[in-house]
Amino acid sequence: MKKRQYRLVIFDMDGTLTEELLDFAAIREEIGVPSEVKGILEHIAELGEEERRRAEEILHRHEITAADACELHVGAEEVLAGLRERGVKTALLTRNSAACAERVLSRHSLELDYVATRDNRPHKPHPDSILNITRRLGISPGETLMVGDYLYDLQAAEAAGTDSALLLEGKRELPAFAPMATYCIRELREVLRLVEGGA
Fold this sequence. Notes:
By secondary structure, the chain is an alpha/beta fold. The chain has 8 helices and 6 strands. The chain has helices at 24-31, 40-45, 49-69, 76-85, 98-107, 128-137, 151-160, 190-195, and strands spanning 8-11, 89-93, 114-116, 144-148, 163-167, 183-185. It has a 6-stranded parallel β-sheet with strand order 3-2-1-4-5-6. The mean pLDDT is 94.
């Protein structure tokens, strides 16, 4: 694989920078998301005002509970500091609320150059979820690496024309969508190797 020089690394939050504590099955059941609907946010967007408000309150409760309890993945602080030392910009891209992201970043004293939450539309997996960040920071998609643990991260990266790193920490088996990733990594520290040109 051709070595790439990255000037921007975008991180997902739950399951990537932090451990994944959200029980999406429980959230879907409490809100009443039909099994054939892929995304919780996509379902909420189609609801009437009163139902939407109720669904958003349920989602917010689950997110804040997780934000107050989650721990950082091993290497998260080291990777962010290492990227800063190398002059590489960092951004957070999450489908969580701004309040949830702020709680997590504040609890763990994490600093990134830009934070995009579900308050910033469109959400992952839409390519503009990434492209709006690259435009804001003045860095081309070809110099950008998206790091995440789920299908939406890879879909957004592929659509935006950026490379992607799928974090497999704690996973014994490769998920079905793993072949979409430019790289598969077992721990966050490997991001520093990728930024330095290692495949």
